[in-house]
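Whiteboard transcription, Tuesday session. T.W. wrote the structure tokens on the left side:
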């Protein structure tokens, strides 16, 4: 995946098929290694959606993958293209997804429209601070009813497996 090559993160080279073949115990182990809880530095806050509607993160009806990006960051733009390709599968498997930027709404709308991903703006930076998010691209998992978040260090190709594992109850973030 482009994120692996461009951000310098060390993703496991395990493929989705290898995980499926190795069974549920191995799948749980792999997901718990790469989806790690973080200490919130503040409350999860509301964001403004594309239409200006407020998104209440603490009132989500299902798990959500929040992907931070910056309009001026080439790896972020590349990552959005990858995510756009798998977003319908994530939604079908019960995982909501939206991208978040601190940038102005006009610039965000232009760049995000190319990938047709739902986006939100964290104009005050309060969600960035709560999640201790400082670099892009970077992803977090937010689960309904939990005042917590998890940093997601999975390759893009592994995200549908995460969605399926959450929906099936095979993986429950701790």
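and on the right, the sequence the group agreed on:
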């Amino acid at each position: 995946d482009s994120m692996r090559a461009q951000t310098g993160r060390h993703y496991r080279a395990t493929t989705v098929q290898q995980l499926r073949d190795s069974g549920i115990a191995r799948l749980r182990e792999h997901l718990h290694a790469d989806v790690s809880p973080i200490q919130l530095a503040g409350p999860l806050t509301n964001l403004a959606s594309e239409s200006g509607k407020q998104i209440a993160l603490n009132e989500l009806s299902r798990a959500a993958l929040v992907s931070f990006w910056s309009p001026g960051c080439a790896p972020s733009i590349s990552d959005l293209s990858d995510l756009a390709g798998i977003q319908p599968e994530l939604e079908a498997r019960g995982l909501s997804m939206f991208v978040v930027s601190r940038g102005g709404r006009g610039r965000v709308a232009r760049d995000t429209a190319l990938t047709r991903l739902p986006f939100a703006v964290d104009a005050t930076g309060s969600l960035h601070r709560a999640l201790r998010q400082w670099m892009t691209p970077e992803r977090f998992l937010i689960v309904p009813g939990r005042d917590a978040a998890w940093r997601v260090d999975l390759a893009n190709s592994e995200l549908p497996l995460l969605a399926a594992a959450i929906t099936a109850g095979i993986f429950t973030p701790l």
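Someone added at the bottom: The first helix runs from residue 2 to 7.
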